[in-house]
Write a structure and sequence with these properties.
One of its GO terms (biological process) is putrescine biosynthetic process from arginine, via agmatine. By secondary structure, the protein is an alpha/beta fold. It has helices at 7-18, 46-52, 77-82, 98-108, 140-149, 172-186; strands at residues 21-26, 56-66, 85-88, 112-118, 154-161. It is built from 6 helices and 5 strands; from the N terminus they run H-E-H-E-H-E-H-E-H-E-H. Strands 3-2-1-4-5 form a 5-stranded parallel beta sheet, with helices on both faces. The protein is globular. The model has no long low-confidence stretch (mean pLDDT 96).
Length: 194
Amino acid sequence: GGDHTVTYPILQAVAEKHGPVGLVHVDAHTDTGDRALGEKIYHGTPFRRCVEEGLLDCSRVVQIGIRGSSYDPDPYKYCQDQGFRVVPAEECWRKSLAPLMGEVRTQMGDKPVYISFDIDGLDPAYAPGTGTPEIAGLTPVQALEIIRGCKGLNIVGCDLVEVAPMYDVSGNTALLGANLLFEMLCILPGVKTR
């Protein structure tokens, strides 16, 4: 729950203990804007603030499912300039993400990793209950492939954000969000699932 701003102070605390961390970030947006309405801290800026403070190991940041509206004509430039791997939603359409996650596991290595999952990374057909829905997103199956594909990584924390149940009368977004968070808990180091 909460908007994506919550990840910024969490990563401050995580980096204080572990140093700069890798990041698996699932989202429709990069959340690397500089300002909105004159403010430097809001749900579209947390990862820029994290870069500025040295909280991320930028060579181990992957953003999956990025698409949709932007305030910038080249919305991926900042991320790519930092060394992030950006995987636009179009590269995910109509296929399994298991091979991608094999590459991500290699990229992350055995160093600390944080998972940040914005529910708007999923298509609003599955998760309409969010403040900034974008069409042509990921499926729930792909979301599970991403999360389960992180099993075995040195995960030091995770979040699932931007669920807004009042925008979904069916309750499906909250159900999906709760299940994805459960899946994240199951892949934490030391958790026995069998």
